[in-house]
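pinging the channel bc i need a second pair of eyes. not urgent but kinda urgent?? the chain im working w is below, pasted from the shared doc
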Amino acid sequence: MGVLDLVITIYTLIPVVLILIMIIAFSMLWPLAIGAAYSPSSKRVVRKMLEMAEVHPEDMVYDLGSGDGRIVIEAAINYQARSVGVEADPLRVAWSRLKVMRMGLSSQVKIIWGNLFHQNLSHATVVTLFLWGRTNENLKEKLQEELTPGTRVVSYVWKFKGWEPVKIDKKEQIYLYIIGESDCFPIPF
């Protein structure tokens, strides 16, 4: 290979490398812009969240900011629940979908690429999330409008200000809320 061939090869690879850098940057920055960074929960925390919500086979579990899909996969495998993960990062969506297909869970688990604020949550009976506190606050009205009374909302680390959890795991920082109970307070006149 001559010097000219080497120069042509390098110039050909530059756009490919730049596109890959842009995809990775978008994949990392977009989730930050809408309210969370990828920080996977441990298996212990995932199990505890689903236990606290008392997930059962009739449930529809939504995980907002589903990352690599570990919560929705766990809900399907160990609780036989149907589940939906909503994730903004396209690379994590692809990875999650691949895991779901490889595990033979496509009939039980759906992974949606999108902004969690633009998804219809009305079918959920359980919602899990590990978002930032400010994101939880921005999400409160949507949860109250779209979820039916009795829907369980489990938050890891961040509380919903003004809502009273019905269960708390202080050690793991997991908070269980129930729509129609935790969020109901007398309306001031």
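so The chain has a mean pLDDT of 88. and The radius of gyration is 20 Å. — does that match what u expected or am i reading it wrong
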